[in-house]
Amino acid sequence: MTENNIYPIFDKMLSRKEKEALLGQRAVMVWFTGLSGSGKSTLAIALERELHKRGFFCRILDGDNIRSGINNNLGFSEADRVENIRRIAEVSKLFIDTGIITIAAFISPNNEIREMAADIIGRDDFLEVYVSTPLEECERRDVKGLYAKARKGEIKNFTGISAPFEAPVHPDLSLDTSVLSVKESVDKLLELVFPRIFKRPPMPDYKF
Fold first, then answer.
1. Phi and psi at residue 144, in whole multiples of 5°?
2. Of 50, 65, 15, 32, which Cα lies nearest the Cα of 197?
3. Model's pTM, two decimal places?
4. Active site residue 41
5. Phi and psi (nearest 5°) for 160?
6. Catalytic site residue from 38, 92, 108, 132
7. What is the Cα–Cα distance from 19 to 30, expressed in whole angstroms?
8. Whose CB has fewer CB within 10 Å in the chain, the N or C terminal residue?
9. Do residues 37 and 64 touch, judged by C-beta distance below 8 A?
10. CA-based diameter of the chain, in Å?
11. Contact status, residue 131 vs residue 175, Cβ threshold 8 Å
12. Is 62:40 a contact under the CB 8 Å cutoff?
């Protein structure tokens, strides 16, 4: 990992444990996957707000802040989608290593691409949440007008219409926002997340 670096500093930086102790929380990745319009970003925002109210430090990553910045040179080909998720996972790992609860909301349309993300981030830190809202409901909402364009052929390789979506095999949690309210969904999310982030490590002994 470090042989190509001129002066590696990994063993000199503060550890994740020390940063978690400072923040008073354990870091974890909550990875939302599902179709466009399923409610991923809505739930990510609601979860962040509930955790923030309880004194937890979080960071949301989604298409708006990733594709307008670090991934603004990527399109939607299969290769670009893989690279999109790879970069997201690498950035997420940096947040996790800094002790930050990280919430990602991306279609990430197949198990292979999500497995890659989990491997990069670390499986012990990866919680997969499948927002299983049916295609019919997602298309009815059509929040960004994307389904209508995809049906007209104006958007190629659109997941759920002209490109497949592979549901997770064993998600840590499945939420169908066509039958669950935002509050009901967030309550289930908190039940999942709390046991992972409430293990507050003691502050290390510092010598001045």
1. -105, 5
2. 50
3. 0.87
4. no
5. 95, -20
6. 108
7. 19
8. C
9. no
10. 67
11. yes
12. yes
Q: Determine contact, residues 34/26, Cβ cutoff 8 Å.
A: no
Q: Position of tokens 């759920």?
A: 160
Sign of the CA dihedral with 55 first, then 106, 71, and 146 last: negative
Which of 17, 24, 11, 41 has the alpha carbon at shortest distance from 182?
A: 41
Instruction: Give how far Cα 125 sits from Cα of 16, 120, 163, Å.
Output: 12, 10, 29
In order along its 208 residues, the chain shows pLDDT tens digits of: 555 666 666 677 889 999 999 999 999 999 999 999 999 999 999 999 999 999 999 999 987 778 777 787 777 777 888 898 999 999 999 999 999 999 999 999 999 999 999 999 999 999 999 999 999 999 999 878 999 999 998 988 889 898 889 999 999 999 999 999 999 999 999 999 999 998 654 555 544 3
Quick check: 143 and 37 in contact, CB under 8 A? yes
Q: Are the C-beta atoms of 109 and 164 separated by less than 8 Å?
A: yes
Residue position matching structure tokens 């939420």: 175
Strand pairing report for 101-105 and 58-62: parallel
**Which amino acid, residue 183?**
K
